[in-house]
């Protein structure tokens, strides 16, 4: 584990060991696994025997969680370049709350706009504001997961392959799920109102509606976001943007983003702005969920006062969880049968992976997108 924990056995409270799992047993299983992965056949045989005749299988599943969770935290992601994270307490639709003043602009005579605390004259009562909630267009967080099964014979024949591949596969599925949730929320959350409109830029260049990716289209897109309002206030982006393009289009996107303005001519008058680039606050990323000629311009997390795009996660269940099925029956005369010995009906063992989360687009109007058709 690359991250340091004060209590490695619970990862500082993030994992709760089930019955039959102890620190001593997990340490013993870890030692056997490490030796087996280094080619120690005696350790591999001992591990196979242990997981098919004792509760070592439960400790092995716990060990996988111990190793996957820190890797999961530190794994590189694309979605976190366009979305923040918000923890929620249940599965109900997520709600974004904010204070809303019940006074009108300048109601007390000082000319203050509604979003500013008004002046309170001597002896006058304080005006009210209330916490107002706005439901997300998403369905709140979702529970996702799947099961995978293997036979008793398969584990005996290839225990090392199982031990080597399961943690990595589990991690990849979790990361792929996150990418899907966030980019699906972005793509499904915008519509015609957020599409690039026909426009004329300050230098006189024209942009058609749904224009293909170009410098002129991006300049117009930024201006169109600034012209939109939420609760009567303009959308101000101060921390930069991400340009989301299909896989394979980032090279072209970087090419047009890194051009600098050299000269503007108007008749005999010439203006030179050496090295100026109005798109220097945009960086491009690729996503497999953006296809064709489409592109999306999204503020980076924290670039706007109101959150734009976020991934929701359930408090206490932020990371993927691996469980092992334990419906194996009992030995004649008593004694627990290991899950790796196989279930009662088919001699198969099952692992179940659970992931809880979802993406949500709080502020569609902060996004501009185009299908690239030019129509």
Description:
Helices cover 28% and strands 25% of the residues. The chain has helices at 23-37, 41-53, 56-74, 152-157, 159-189, 215-227, 250-257; strands spanning 84-88, 95-101, 129-135, 142-151, 199-200, 206-207, 229-230, 233-234, 241-246, 261-266, 269-276, 282-287, 295-299, 309-314, 321-324, 348-361, 368-370. Helix 1 (23-37) crosses helix 2 and helix 2 crosses helix 3. Strands 1, 4, 14, 15 and 16 form a 5-stranded mixed β-sheet that branches. It has a 4-stranded mixed β-sheet with strand order 12-9-13-17, with helices on one face. The longest helix is centred in the middle third of the chain and has 31 residues, at 159-189. With 375 residues, the protein is α+β, with helices and mostly antiparallel strands. It contains 7 helices and 17 strands. It folds into 3 domains: 1-74, no CATH class; 75-92 and 138-375, phage-related protein like fold; 95-135, no CATH class. The model has no long low-confidence stretch (mean pLDDT 84).
Oligomer: single chain
Tally of separate helices: 7
SS-derived structural category: alpha+beta
Give helix % range.
Answer: 25-40%
- Strand coverage percent: 25-35%
Shape-level CATH architecture of the largest domain:
Alpha-Beta Complex
Largest sheet: number of strands, sense, barrel closure: 5 strands, mixed
Number of domains: 3
Summed over residues and divided by their number, the pLDDT gives a mean of 84
What is the N-to-C succession of helices and strands?
HHHEEEEHHEEHEEEHEEEEEEEE
Q: For the record, what CATH class of the largest domain applies?
A: Alpha Beta
Tell me the Rg in angstroms: 28 Å
Task: Using the coordinates shown, work out and report the CATH topology of the largest domain.
Answer: phage-related protein like fold
Number of strands: 17
User: First CA to last CA: what distance?
Assistant: 52 Å
């Amino acid at each position: 584990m690359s991250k340091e924990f004060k209590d490695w056995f619970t990862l500082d409270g993030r994992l709760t060991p089930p019955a039959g799992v102890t620190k001593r047993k997990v340490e013993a299983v870890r030692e056997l696994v490490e030796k087996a992965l280094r080619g120690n056949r005696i350790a591999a045989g001992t591990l196979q025997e242990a997981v098919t005749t004792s509760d070592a299988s439960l400790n092995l599943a716990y060990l996988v969680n111990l190793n996957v969770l820190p890797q999961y935290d530190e794994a590189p992601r694309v979605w976190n370049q366009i979305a923040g994270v918000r923890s929620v307490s249940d599965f109900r639709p997520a709600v974004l709350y904010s204070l809303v003043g019940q006074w009108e602009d300048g109601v007390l005579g000082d000319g203050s706009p509604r979003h500013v605390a008004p002046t309170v004259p001597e002896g006058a009562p304080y005006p009210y504001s209330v916490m107002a909630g706005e439901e997300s267009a998403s369905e709140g967080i979702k529970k996702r997961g799947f099961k995978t099964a293997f036979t008793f014979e398969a584990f005996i024949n290839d225990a090392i392959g199982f031990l080597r591949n399961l943690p990595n596969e589990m991690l990849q599925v979790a990361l792929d799920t996150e990418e899907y949730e966030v980019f699906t929320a972005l793509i499904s959350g915008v519509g015609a109102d957020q599409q690039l409109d026909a426009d004329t830029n300050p230098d006189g260049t024209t942009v058609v509606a749904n224009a293909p990716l170009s410098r002129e289209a991006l300049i117009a897109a930024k201006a169109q976001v600034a012209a939109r309002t939420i609760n009567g206030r303009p959308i101000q982006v101060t921390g930069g943007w991400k340009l989301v393009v299909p896989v394979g289009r980032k090279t072209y996107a970087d090419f047009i983003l890194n051009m600098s303005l050299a000269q503007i001519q108007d008749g005999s008058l010439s203006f030179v702005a050496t090295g100026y680039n109005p798109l220097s606050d945009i960086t491009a990323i690729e996503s497999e969920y953006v296809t064709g000629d489409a592109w999306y311009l999204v503020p980076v997390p924290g670039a706007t006062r109101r959150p734009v795009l976020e991934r929701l996660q359930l408090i206490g269940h932020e990371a993927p969880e691996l469980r092992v099925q334990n419906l194996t029956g009992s030995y004649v005369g008593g004694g627990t049968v290991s899950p790796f010995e196989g279930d009662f009906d088919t001699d198969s063992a099952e692992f179940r992976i659970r992931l809880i989360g979802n993406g949500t687009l709080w502020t569609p109007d902060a996004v501009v997108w185009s299908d690239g058709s030019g129509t």
